[in-house]
Amino acid sequence: MTQLRGFGGPRRLGPPYSNLVTFLDGTVYGTDIYRTGCSLASAAVHAGVVAPGEKAVVRVTIMPQHPEFAGTTRNGVTSQAWSSS
Q1: Is the pTM of this model over 0.90?
Q2: pLDDT at residue 2, as a whole number
């Protein structure tokens, strides 16, 4: 496994996993590319890859930190903007 630094501490890359999206919880930062530390369930619904209550395998790619993320409303989820400056 590869270890990367991310929001909230180290992150490890591993196999994708299945997550049941029963409710939308937590904050989402970004659109299309999301900040680490976001609610995976809410980000997946925002991106349109899963619907609330749907069980799906979500593959996550951890990328180098972006300097800023745009906020939008999609699929009933509002994401927040974030900037490192």
Answers
A1: no
A2: 39
